């Protein structure tokens, strides 16, 4: 029996610019099961990043329903949404979004500090996570002293800090060379084997192949879900 984690019903996201209305997401109905590895693909402007932002509660749909573990997201207040973002999701971005003047260790500790986890516990978990992604010897390095691939590994460790059940990755290999991209995708594959649900936005076909399911967007609509 499938365990539905995320469910979307007739989802729309409409942006208004003057007299022009743009449907970034248009009538999307979809379910994603716990433990899936999903790639969301499509050309630039197809709506895939907007859809990812809605999933991560970073943006609200204009209309339609979004259920996370059978909870209607529209019924939650700002504090509850912030709690969900911090505990349920791990976010990974193309540009890494690391704090430039803090060490790799401190970057990974940050979500745990927000969650009220003590210094000793956060230090231990951050150290363990950086070891997990192959950066045991880079705990005290600042981002400018790390390669792009190493910075993305720090970002992955940070995304895992609060033991999320869902990883949302927006073009996580967009600034990396082919070999480094492959290393990062292998980390995602290993995480998924531990039953972490991964939803990854990419426009690169070779990256999308790592996923077990491809959802293809065009003009805000899903045109295929393989």
Compact description:
By secondary structure, the protein is an alpha/beta fold. It has seven helices and ten strands. The protein has a six-stranded mixed β-sheet with strand order 6-7-8-3-9-10, with helices on both faces.
Average pLDDT across residues? 94
The value of Rg in angstroms is 18 Å
Percent strand equals: 25-35%
Quote the distance from N terminus to C terminus.
19 Å
Shape: globular
Strand order of the largest sheet: 6-7-8-3-9-10
The H/E string reads: EEEHEEHEHHHEHEHEE
**DSSP helix count?**
7
Low-confidence stretches: none
Please give a structural write-up.
The longest helix is centred in the last third of the chain and has 16 residues, at 178-193. By secondary structure, the protein is an alpha/beta fold. A 6-stranded mixed beta sheet has the order 6-7-8-3-9-10, sandwiched between helices. Strands 2-1-4-5 form a 4-stranded antiparallel beta sheet, covered by helices on one side. 33% of the residues lie in helices and 30% in strands. Strand 9 and strand 10 (221-225) form a beta hairpin. The protein is built from 7 helices and 10 strands.
Give the topology.
Blueprint: E1 4-17, E2 20-33, E3 37-41, H1 48-55, E4 63-68, E5 71-72, H2 78-87, E6 89-93, H3 104-114, H4 119-132, H5 148-159, E7 166-170, H6 178-193, E8 197-201, H7 205-208, E9 213-218, E10 221-225
Parallel strand pairs: 3-8, 3-9, 6-7, 7-8
Antiparallel strand pairs: 1-2, 1-4, 4-5, 9-10
Features:
226 residues, alpha/beta, six-stranded mixed beta sheet, four-stranded antiparallel beta sheet, 7 helices, 10 strands, 33% helix
